Prior knowledge:
By secondary structure, the chain is an alpha/beta fold. It has helices spanning 10-19, 32-39, 48-56, 67-71, 95-107, 123-131, 148-153, 165-176, 192-222, 227-235, 256-266, 274-295, 319-329, 355-361; strands at 2-6, 24-28, 61-64, 76-79, 85-86, 91-92, 112-115, 136-138, 158-160, 187-189, 300-304, 333-337, 345-346, 349-351, 364-366, 381-382.
Amino acid sequence: MKICVVGTGYVGLSLAVLLAQNYQVTALDISEQKIKLINSKKSPFKDPEIEDYLKNKNLKLNATLNKKTAYSNADYVVIATPTNYKADIGSFDTSSVEQIISDSLSYNPDTTIIIKSTIPFGFTDLMRQKFDKREIIFSPEFLRESKALYDNLYPSRIVIGDDTEKAIQFGKILISSSLKSETDIKLFCMNSREAEAVKLFANTFLAARISFFNELDSFSEVKNLSSEKIIMGVSADPRIGNYYNNPSFGYGGYCLPKDTKQLREYFRDIPNNIINSVVDANKTRKDFIADSIYKKKPKTVGIYRLTMKHNSDNFRASAIQGIMKRIKAKGINMIVYEPLITEKTFDESEIIHDLIEFKKKSDLIVANRIDSEIIDVKEKIYSRDLFTKD
């Protein structure tokens, strides 16, 4: 069996590596740099399992820029390109997904297409009609940043938006490629619209949970209470659980902001309170954090890291950038320490590449997540990171 995976970001490369343990996989991307790295058995981004598997496992994986090479003779074409949310149209930008479907079918009309990209509700049915092809299937991913391959190796569940033989076969391929027992992984087959809804509602629930504990933390800060003690007491209830409960500056990253906004669009004509509030709560939290920083009257605020999580090299749509915009609007001078950036500025703020210099210049250091390298100046730190976990 031959499988083509289109897109080598977190989702695509983790799937390509997972499947290449047992199947011949071709990874297709438009980035020559990524292709060279993957073929040199190096990961383009930070993910411990991907780095390990590329370096040490005997994978049947080849990366290419050539569409014909990738699509021809592929039994499955797996689409894993990003679909950013566009506020002006109130929906995801699915242009890359549509183009890939068109390209792949032009080279290989008999292939089965699996969409792993996040897509709007009803999109799969529209694509089936547009291309007059039944074998276009949505299968949502449930992966964490920097843990993408780990989550594929130990999946919580497999959801397939179809119940045909080829759909079920792909679900079984994912299960057999994992490190969990087949009896420990549930395979859910449903129609495409139900599968699309699973992804949107799952991520919105996670965003709601993050927002709940952030608002608990805001309450505690205003009332001069210990957030840590309250959260520990609340989370000890097994119905609630001790996870996704560490306060932050808000939810961010690849999925949660765009998925919550997309789901809210679908609720425009449906009575609701919760879905709207999940999106609004994230803005309110950032406003609260920025106001708390402003009240401390710092002359220079140092932003420690732009990344969302510990051991991450991604800061796309990170919550701290929303805090930066609000601080800047209040006229406070701001500097940034981010080792991943080689430029002299980021969003018009000065980048300080030397950590010691950064600490000296900062009156207040704002950190979404605290690291051991700044503990020596803890009296300067403003953070809501209580448990030093993501």
